[in-house]
Write a structure and sequence with these properties.
There is one protein chain. By secondary structure, this protein is an alpha+beta fold. It contains eleven helices and 20 strands. A hairpin with a 4-residue loop joins strand 14 and strand 15. The protein is globular.
Length: 453
């Protein structure tokens, strides 16, 4: 069997795209920071020639991950009865996708959380035998009871916290609203789990609350999506587990250092989805703060950094911010490892052409962030009966999606509005909209397309 180094860290690169030129009196500096991780998740940077992988083992650096699957077993999972069967089949498919040696457990969620497999506060280690045992345990799952997702997350945190691994990941499936605990209890559970494990969340059917599921994924740095037809669960769970198995390194932080007098206006992820990070800063010494980015495999993400610099005269220049990617020492004894760095600059000029041009990456992602925002505002307005406001916001969304080439979002919008003219954003609200179509648009509204190079 191939032996992949536990200490292997992928190669990270940081590229900064910006227009550094400011007019006299100009103070706002925008930059798109592209972070790319290579030689990680798919092959661990190790050639696979001659490597023999046992059944169920995916190419990678070897087991250093723990995964807990949380399956909604509330009473509503029996309506229709195929929903529970599809959830069992999807969980079985995810278990089949686990790499040999990965620690795992299955939790059944109702108004309380129960260990389905292996039990007794333990995690199993994936191999042919434990996969078969877990799938046998799944057959005994039945629906009944309420929904209190915070209890599921806290049990998952206890199980994952006992594992001596780098990557801790949860997969959560729900079909209903979190009706058996208060929003405050769920928020407290999310605050307690944030930074301890990442979690992908899925809503199945159309009786769940989009903002609840997306808030769970956002707090735990995972993905959120809708599986409107339960028959699609197995394919979705398999893909989610493959992505989890591809993660190489966890708890990577984006550190922003700024000189005296520079104020940070915002930090947000803008690709592959829009995610606000500004309020998630933790202080890291004088004029430095860390923003969490979660787990990484072979992938690339874009971040929008906006800072306000002090006024300066023509011809002056300054370092507006230094962006570093850091990997903390698990023991906390040593300083974090600097994986890569990039610089954001400000140069004051009287060249009007230079100071007024907008960097293409900055312009593109400013539009994508607005697209996510106006979709949410438009759908909220539609739900509240403000049809004029909904038409205006969703029209603007159609215009932005068309201009940026975001074809997936444009297709989703076309199921909610009739598009008269995409270029001008002229639309009419559809009289009847399928609930699944509206929920899909809301759930996927933060998905972005990358700027065309």
């Amino acid at each position: 069997m191939a032996n992949f180094s536990k200490s292997h860290v992928p190669q990270f690169s940081v590229d900064v795209y910006q227009n550094e030129y400011l007019p006299e009196g100009g103070r706002e500096v925008n930059a798109i920071v592209t972070v790319t991780s290579t030689g990680g998740g798919t092959t661990g940077g190790v050639p696979l020639t001659g490597a023999t992988l046992s059944p169920g083992q995916m190419p990678g650096r070897g087991p250093n991950a723990a995964v807990v699957i949380m399956v909604d077993c509330s009473g509503s999972m029996d309506y229709p009865p195929t929903k529970m069967r599809n959830a069992r089949d999807a969980t079985a498919a995810a278990i089949d996708t686990l790499r040999d040696g990965t620690s795992f457990a299955v939790v059944g969620g109702t108004h309380i959380a129960k260990e389905v497999y292996p039990g007794n506060g333990r995690l199993a280690v994936a191999d042919t035998q434990t996969r078969a045992q877990a799938k046998e345990a799944l057959r005994r799952l039945s629906a009944g009871g309420g929904t209190a997702i915070g209890t599921w997350l806290r049990l998952t945190d206890r199980l994952l916290g006992a594992a001596d691994v780098d990557i801790r990941h949860g997969i959560l499936l729900t079909d209903g609203r979190n009706e058996h605990e208060s929003p405050k209890d769920l928020r407290a559970a999310l605050d307690a789990c944030a930074g301890r494990f990442t979690c992908d969340a899925r809503g199945v059917g159309t009786d769940w609350e989009v903002k609840e599921v997306t808030a769970i994924a956002s707090a735990l740095l995972g993905t959120a999506d809708i599986v409107a037809d339960p028959a699609g669960l197995a394919a979705d769970f398999t893909q989610m587990m493959e992505n989890a198995m591809g993660k190489e390194v966890a708890d990577v932080a984006l550190r922003l250092w700024t000189p005296v007098g520079v104020e940070i206006k915002f930090v947000k992820q803008v690709a592959p989805t829009v995610a606000e990070l500004t309020d998630r800063r933790t202080e890291a010494g004088p004029r430095a703060g860390d923003y969490p980015t979660g787990s990484w495999g072979d992938e690339s993400r874009d971040y929008h950094v906006c800072v306000q610099v002090p006024e300066a005269g023509i011809g002056q220049e300054m370092l507006a911010a230094r962006v570093s990617l850091l990997l903390p020492d698990p023991s906390g004894a040593a300083a974090p490892q600097v994986l890569s760095q990039g610089l954001v600059r400000a140069v004051w000029t009287d060249d009007m052409a230079a100071s007024t041009s907008i960097n293409p990456q900055v312009a593109h992602y400013t539009g994508q962030a607005e697209l996510a925002q106006v979709i949410q505002q438009g759908l909220d307005a539609r739900k509240s009966g403000d049809f004029d406001g909904a038409t205006a916001k969703l029209g603007r969304a159609v215009q932005l999606a068309s201009a940026s080439g975001n074809e997936d979002t444009a297709k989703l919008l076309s199921k909610v509005v009739d598009v008269v003219d995409a270029a001008t954003g002229t639309v009419r609200l559809k009289a009847k909209v399928a609930e699944a179509d509206e929920m899909t648009l809301e759930t996927r509204s933060t998905k972005t397309v990358r700027v065309k190079k």
